[in-house]
Amino acid sequence: MERKVSIIGAGPSGFALAADLQNRGIDVLVYSHPDHFRYANEVMVKGQLTVRGKIESSMPVCITSDMAEIIEFSLMIILTIPSTGHETVLQQLRGFSLQQHTIIAIPGNLFSLIADIEIGCVLETNLSPYSCRMERDEVLVLGKKSLIFIAALQSPPSQAIYDAVQEIMPVKLCWCSSVIEVCLLNVNGVFHPLMILMNAARIESTNGDFFLYRDGLTSSVAKAMIAVDQVRMQIGNAFGHSMRSALRVSNECYGHTFTSLVDLARNSGPHNGLKAPPDLQNRNISEDVPDLLVCWHSLAEKLGIDASPIKAIIVLAQMATSVDYFQSGRSLRKLHLEDISRSELIERFMAQPDGAIVSRL
Ligand SMILES: NC(=O)c1ccc[n+]([C@@H]2O[C@H](COP(=O)([O-])OP(=O)(O)OC[C@H]3O[C@@H](n4cnc5c(N)ncnc54)[C@H](OP(=O)(O)O)[C@@H]3O)[C@@H](O)[C@H]2O)c1
């Protein structure tokens, strides 16, 4: 197998992945969009990438802002940009022949349904393998997950792709039968927006000088999260997926055994040391509200599920930021699913009999 991977996205996740893969002898080329070059610039000026924490490494990394080089470098491309940047990347990928390529979107947030170009295989995960932050040229990896969930739009993928992805990816993969299931397993949609909105005044009055999970996820915040989580699980259940709570998904991904959301917030190493952002202009809102909550709300509406807890958060986020997330977010219209009936929607993304997927775990 080709021991080379192209990574599109030069932020904490992309550079943590680059270091992890290089440590395992896999060559990488990292793409940074010219308008989003701040981290790439720091690494290039320093001449090497330093990663600390759960991954230790200090080595040069190749960076480009030429998409043609990325496509030429490897048939395996991993996207590590926020889903709000997917459209920008798709615009740049148009015009290239990608029939032989595999693209893995980390996380996907239904990237495969908005990717309107011909790609050999599109896969998407629920989360990033890492909990990480970046300052200047240095990445701090606070946590590395034990497993993440993944699915292909055309499920299951061929054995050759399955083997190649399995060999490249730095964590155990739990293969799901539909991209909708994987999108619902991105439990950041349960955690992030409520934690930011219910702590908005504190964020703004302290410039984020408190621990977002440890201090900001208290019992009433947890209760609100559980209300959202119940809607998320009802949506998955309507497709026949056996849904687990966000707490259980997080425990599975990190190999933890926390008994409540507050227990997780206080005691989880990858979470309890995270500082709050300095303001509300961050991807806990700008990515997770439009590309997870609007999507879940839109699915729930089509399925006839009461999604008022999710709608309440979207409306509050809109009022607090003056951004129309219902308009900009991944609604069924944006996902090209608007015109199909409820039963067609369920049929297209329903859980498959376990055989094909489970036999590969
Ligand atoms: N880091 C974590 O701990 C973590 C954990 C779970 C999930 N994730 C998810 O993993 C993904 C990547 O995380 P990250 O922390 O590396 O994200 P990030 O720093 O916000 O973004 C990654 C890179 O993408 C660039 N970018 C942003 N918008 C873009 C656009 N429209 N076009 C092209 N490039 C764009 C960023 O540039 P700028 O710096 O200029 O914005 C940055 O260089 C996100 O979806 C995130 O939610 C991350």
UniProtKB/TrEMBL annotation:
For this protein, the record's Gene3D superfamilies field holds: N-(1-d-carboxylethyl)-l-norvaline Dehydrogenase, domain 2, NAD(P)-binding Rossmann-like Domain
| Domain (Opine dehydrogenase) ranges | 175-320
- A GO BP annotation: glycerol-3-phosphate catabolic process
SUPFAM superfamilies assigned: 6-phosphogluconate dehydrogenase C-terminal domain-like, NAD(P)-binding Rossmann-fold domains
What this protein catalyses is: sn-glycerol 3-phosphate + NAD(+) = dihydroxyacetone phosphate + NADH + H(+)
Q: Which UniProt keywords apply?
A: Oxidoreductase
Domain Glycerol-3-phosphate dehydrogenase NAD-dependent N-terminal, by residue range, is: 4-105
Q: Does the keyword Oxidoreductase apply?
A: yes
Q: Which GO terms describe its molecular function?
A: glycerol-3-phosphate dehydrogenase (NAD+) activity; NAD binding
Q: Which Pfam families match?
A: NAD_Gly3P_dh_N, Octopine_DH
Protein known as:
Opine dehydrogenase domain-containing protein
Organismal lineage: Eukaryota, Fungi, Dikarya, Ascomycota, Pezizomycotina
